[in-house]
Write a structure and sequence with these properties.
six-stranded mixed β-sheet; 6 strands; about 30% helix
């Protein structure tokens, strides 16, 4: 039935006298309450009950002559109003693989190089402003749907830089691909970047994203001429991934999304982690 005033206050925080942090956590003075997570085809939720229509006097009196016609003509059946609910709907992408990285790490370039997606690509940070989906198609018909999420920043798990808006799109992914700029084009350190990415995912929600099947990828290796330096970066990335508890097997993979170097081994590795995750979900 319709919510009482006390229920309304409990759900939406109307009339609360709290101040400080609790009040700041509310949106528009209303407390955010999750009603349902509609993550399966055909699932639905009744969020407010519709009202009941009334009957006018012409319906009751009808057109033919009957006893007490005037009395019945004045009679009527009042309708009842429906319930009112204030809703905030969140759309979350559903993908096999989520690309995780800082701005300008090369996520869009990788998606463009491995799929038919056409993301906007430019040599500056924050080129990707909205999540984008592309599919990696294999010769035998196997397909992996990838989600390119806009670049994260330090503090994303606390909401900085629209962190919540971007991280929630990774919640539906089966596996993750951590990608860093090995060349440090923007003056960044790839090792430190991986540490921050792992920290942000570990501190988002219940922290379960860090335990998902994952790959660690170093992009822009074409800008590093010294082979020994390349190998050192890949080795250190592998060590850091293990320290963070990132669920990956094997070694960090080096690629150049711009020139296509290393994409063959990478797409095979992507297939393996997604396939392994599919199998584990069937067993569980």
């Amino acid at each position: 039935g319709p919510m009482s005033n006390e229920q309304w206050k409990t759900i939406f925080g109307v009339g609360d006298e709290e101040d400080g942090e609790e009040t700041n956590k509310r949106r528009g003075g209303r407390e955010k309450v999750v009603l349902a997570d509609l993550d399966k085809p055909g699932s639905y939720l009744l969020v407010s009950q519709g009202g009941k229509g009334g009957k006018g006097n012409s319906t009751l009196a009808k057109r033919q002559y009957i006893d007490n016609v005037l009395e019945k003509a004045y009679a009527r059946s009042a309708g009842t109003p429906g319930e009112i609910a204030f809703l905030e709907l969140e759309l979350k992408l559903i993908a096999d693989l989520g690309l995780v990285g800082f701005p300008n790490a090369g996520k869009s370039s990788l998606l463009a190089a491995t799929s038919m997606a056409k993301p906007e690509i430019a040599p500056y940070p924050f080129t990707t402003l909205h999540p984008l989906v592309g599919s990696i198609e294999y010769k035998d018909g196997f397909r992996v749907v990838c989600a390119d999420v806009p670049g994260l920043i330090d503090g994303a798990s606390e909401g900085r830089g629209r962190g919540f808006d971007f991280l929630r799109h990774l919640e539906r992914t089966k596996a993750l691909l951590y990608i860093v700029d090995a060349a440090g084009v923007d003056g960044r350190d790839p090792i430190e970047d991986l540490k921050i990415l792992g920290h942000e995912l570990a501190n988002y929600g219940d922290g379960d994203m860090l335990s998902r099947q994952a790959l660690v990828v170093a992009n822009k290796l074409d800008l590093i001429n010294d082979k020994e330096e390349r190998e050192t970066i890949l080795f250190e990335l592998g060590l850091v991934a293990e320290e963070l508890g990132i669920n990956y097997k094997g070694e960090a993979l080096g690629i150049s999304a711009c020139y296509g170097d290393g994409l063959g081994p990478l797409t095979r590795a992507i297939r393996e982690v997604v396939k392994k995750e599919n199998e584990s979900r069937l067993i569980s």
